[in-house]
Design goal:
The protein has about 325 residues and is mostly helical. The protein has two domains: about 1-65, no CATH class; about 65-305, no CATH class. The protein contains 15 helices and no strands. Helix 7 (about 110-135) crosses helix 8 and helix 13 (about 275-290) runs antiparallel to helix 14. The N and C termini lie far apart (about 60 Å).
Length: about 325
């Protein structure tokens, strides 16, 4: 019984990110705050604290609904048991395999930091874009888009294999383009913190545009758009902090005041059902493959975008968005493949 209670305490303190603070309070030694590792540990409770504030504000304003947090919470619990070390192992493996093949060498200076961040955003864009455009990879990513409400708990809702897959792509690109491990870990920490923050819900931050920053950074407003299933908003805003590659590739989309966001995925799912949100896309892909005629069509269902059909009646995000725009302007709808 004692072991079970200790496990629960460890899981709770791990979720809240307060291990480092507890250790400092016990020892009375705060010298670690002068080190980069100590600063990282000290900032770890930031997102969990904001989540708690979000929950409290939602309760006070009577906007709190258990079903809005149920799915991310169940996903977090499940992932804690099956994927604790996979992502760390993937990063370590990539470093061992690709660091020596870097095209150039960087150091931990401000100008290489700027270079590294631009490279990181490119790597993140590539992983994220593929997660929306390759059906099998979408099966990994869809769990994160399944919640039908936006709040900070959504940052914990991921299929357990997505983080290793994402880190393999991002780490490999960064290492080959010369972002060395210390610089990479610094960028990953900053980007991970911001990437969690941009999931903040309206209970904590009503207007996610952040004023003038909306024209410079990828804000919570941009990321709310990314999580929307509205045709205009689908498959946009793939960057994490700096929207430079969304601007470069034409995937940047601002939040339109006259178009309220509808969260979730286009496939009808059972609201709050863990199994459907976690495994439903794999089941749908399996059925499409089973029904497809010929080996070529079966393979195409794996690699083509979600919504692709062997019949030619495509319902991909590109087609849906294109048709919506043409209908909105009153122009004849042209077929897009």
């Amino acid at each position: 019984m004692t072991d079970i209670l200790q496990l629960l305490v460890d899981e709770l303190t791990g979720f809240l990110g307060i291990h480092h603070w507890m250790e400092m309070f016990r020892s009375g030694d705060y010298q670690s705050l002068l080190t980069w590792k100590g600063i990282q540990g000290a900032l770890s409770p930031l997102i969990p604290l904001l989540l708690l504030i979000e929950l409290i504000r939602g309760s006070l304003y009577r906007n709190f609904k258990v079903e809005n947090y149920k799915l991310p919470f169940l996903t977090y619990i499940f992932n804690r048991f099956v994927s604790r070390y996979l992502s760390i192992s993937a990063v370590a493996y990539c470093i061992a395999l690709f660091e020596e093949h870097a095209l150039l060498k960087t150091t931990l200076t401000w100008y290489w930091f700027l270079y590294g961040y631009v490279v990181w955003e490119l790597a993140h864009f590539v992983y994220h874009y593929l997660g929306h455009k390759v059906r099998l990879l979408w099966c990994l990513h869809a769990t994160h888009h399944a919640p039908e409400d936006m709040n900070l708990s959504v940052t914990y809702a991921h299929f357990f294999l997505e983080a290793p897959y994402a880190d393999v792509i991002r780490t490999t690109i960064c290492l080959l383009l010369g972002v060395n491990p210390p610089l990479l870990f610094l960028i990953m920490f900053i980007d991970g913190t911001w990437g969690s923050f941009i999931h903040v819900g309206e209970n904590l931050l009503k207007d996610g545009r952040l004023g003038f920053l909306n024209g410079i950074l990828l804000t919570p407003s941009h990321h709310r758009v990314h999580h929307a299933k509205n045709p205009l908003y689908m498959d946009t805003n793939f960057c994490n902090l700096l929207p430079i590659w969304d601007k470069a590739f034409g995937t940047l989309q601002t939040e339109e005041k006259e178009l309220p966001i509808e969260y979730g995925i286009s496939r009808q799912i059972r609201r709050g059902h863990f199994g459907d949100a976690y495994f439903g896309e794999f089941y749908a892909l399996f059925n499409d493959i089973r029904r497809a005629p010929g080996l070529k069509n079966k393979l195409l269902y794996v690699v083509m975008p979600p919504g692709w059909s062997h019949t030619g009646d495509h319902k991909t995000a590109k087609v849906v968005r294109h048709n919506y725009r043409q209908q909105a302007t009153g122009e004849p709808v042209a077929q897009v493949s």
